[in-house]
DNA sequence: CCGTATCCATTTAGATACTG
DNA sequence: CAGTATCTAAATGGATACGG
């Protein structure tokens, strides 16, 4: 969620909508969360899944998710270092949110499945 | 949705999540849509509901929503001018999305209702 | 392997003034 | 009333180099 970090909005109804967006917005957070719902992953795995993300951005987004209590970071003190990211309890509560976003995207945002026969 | 306008992402699964966010992100779009679900509103009404939005931003966000086919703009040729904004069919399909966002926000994002007695 | 630090281009958004 | 124009501040995000 770019813009100012969780700026307190003048909370009229509808504010909760923005409040939620603050957490999942931010160019990569949605996808990161989506992948972490599948399973815990290490940094390099996420990086591969996101493909075009830079190290800097991935780190930054993960840090924000961590700071918002949505993602947990586990450091395994090995050589070479291994760091794993998983969803917290709070993070898991976002499951319905992410899924609704994905469903709408599949149905309305992406071009069109271009079916071979029926339409 | 700030960042680059609907940049085509490398669509792996999870892309649909971002794709949806592209439409409802953007500091005010979520709330604008939320209010338009209630009813059609004119520019000044929306402005009052958003309170801290500037004219420039409200216009910009509405233009993007219009361009994405989510909101319809109706100009009533009167003096003084009256312009009304309403949801399109496509816009209405976002209802479950916005509601899930609102519900999560109410439950997890906002401080805490601070009840007088029970907790 | 998993980051952080720095530099820089782009984008976003606020304030303000003006128009039909 | 409902915008548009301009100017500027701030934030985002990409590239690159370096560190534990």
From TrEMBL, chains A, B:
Keyword Nucleotide-binding: no
Domain HTH hxlR-type: 15-113
Keyword tRNA processing: no
Domain of life: Bacteria
Keywords, in A-Z order: DNA-binding, Transcription, Transcription regulation
InterPro entries, sorted: HTH_HxlR, WH-like_DNA-bd_sf, WH_DNA-bd_sf
A molecular-function term among this protein's GO annotations: DNA binding
PANTHER family noted in UniProt: TRANSCRIPTIONAL REGULATOR (PTHR33204:SF29), TRANSCRIPTIONAL REGULATOR, MARR FAMILY (PTHR33204)
Name recorded for this polypeptide: Helix-turn-helix transcriptional regulator
Organism: Gluconacetobacter tumulisoli
């Amino acid at each position: 969620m770019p813009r100012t970090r969780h700026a307190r909005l003048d909370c009229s109804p509808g504010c909760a909508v923005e409040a939620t967006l603050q957490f999942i917005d931010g160019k990569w957070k949605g996808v990161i969360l989506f992948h972490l719902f599948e399973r815990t992953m290490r940094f390099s795995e996420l990086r591969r899944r996101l493909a075009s993300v830079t190290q800097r951005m991935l780190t930054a987004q993960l840090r924000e998710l961590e700071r918002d209590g949505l993602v947990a970071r586990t450091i395994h003190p090995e050589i070479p270092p291994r760091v794993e990211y998983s969803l917290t309890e709070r993070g898991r509560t976002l499951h319905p949110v992410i899924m609704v976003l994905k469903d709408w995207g599949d149905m309305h945002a992406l071009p069109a499945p271009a079916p071979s026969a029926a339409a």
